[in-house]
Amino acid sequence: MYARANSSDRRAIVAGALLMLACGSGERPPAARAAGVGTVNVVARGLTFEAPDTIPAGWTTFRFDNQASMIHFAVVERLPPGISVREQQEQVAPVFQEGLRLLTAGQVDSAMAAFGALPEWFGKVVFMGGPGLTAGGHASETTVYLEPGTYMLECYVKTGGVFHSFNPNGPAYGMVHQFQVTDAVTDAPEPIPDIRIMLSSERGIVVDGEPAAGRRTIAVEFEDQKVHENFVGHDLHLVRLDEGV
C-alpha cells in the first residue's frame, strides 16, 4: 500500500502480486542522503516480529515474510514525541483487550466506558499503512515515506479473543517492534501508479483502470477517513479468492 497524507487528502497505492506500497505525509526537510533503496526485512515467527531497530528516513520498502502458521499483518505507526512501546504496553494494550472482552460478552456500554481509559496521546498516533493481511508462508511488501521519529510495527489480528500484540501473561507485548527513523534520507524513488482506486464512506470502492494479471501498482485515494469502532479508519487489503469462491 502506498499512502500519502496532507492537510486535504490521504492517498495510498496497492500493488498486485501481493506487492503493497505506502507513504507518509508532509514536506521532505533537507537532510543527508543515505545510500541504498531503503529495503527493510520484517519476519514474523510465531507471535513475534524480527526487524531492524534503526532505519533512515525516506521511501522505505517493508518486505514482510510471514513464516508463522497464521495470518498476520504489520501496520506502521508513528508514535507521538516522547511516547515509546513501553507506554503502548502499559496504557493502550490492556484497554483494548478489556474492551474486546466486554464487546464479545455483549456488554457494549461497559466496553465503551473501558475504552474511555485510553490516554490522550493515543489520538496522536499516525497509522501509516503497511503490509496488509498476509497468510502464513506468504510474503508482501509495502513502500512508505517515513519522516524522522519513533515508530512501531504492530499486528493486532486476534486469535482466541486475544490480540496478537497483547501478552495476557504479563506486561510484555507480543507482535510489536519499535524502531527509530533517523535524519538521513534514502535515495529510493517514489512509486509510480498505473491504476487508481478511490475509497469513500459514501461511494465505497471506485476503480479507475482495468486490473490485469501481473505486477500492478494501484494508487488508492482516501476521499475521507472515518474512524470506526476499533479506533482506526478505512484500509484496503488485497486477497485472492479460491476457485469457486
Shape: globular
The strand count comes to 17
Please state roughly what percent of the residues sit in beta strands, choosing from under 5%, 5-15%, 15-25%, 25-35%, 35-45% or over 45%. 35-45%
N-to-C CA distance:
25 Å
The largest sheet is: 9 strands, mixed
Number of helices: 3
Indicate the structural class: mainly beta
Radius of gyration: 18 Å
Q: What is the N-to-C order of secondary-structure elements (H for helix, E for strand)?
A: EEEEEEEEHHHEEEEEEEEE
Q: Would you tell me the overall average pLDDT?
A: 81
User: Percentage of helical residues?
Assistant: 10-25%
Spans with pLDDT under 50 lasting ≥5 residues? 1-35
What does this structure look like?
The chain contains three helices and 17 strands. Strands 4, 5, 6, 7, 8, 9, 10, 11 and 14 form a nine-stranded mixed sheet that branches. The chain has 245 residues and is mainly beta. It has helices at 85-91, 93-104, 108-115, and strands spanning 4-5, 10-15, 20-21, 33-34, 39-45, 48-50, 54-66, 75-78, 126-127, 139-146, 149-154, 158-159, 162-163, 176-186, 195-200, 204-208, 217-222.
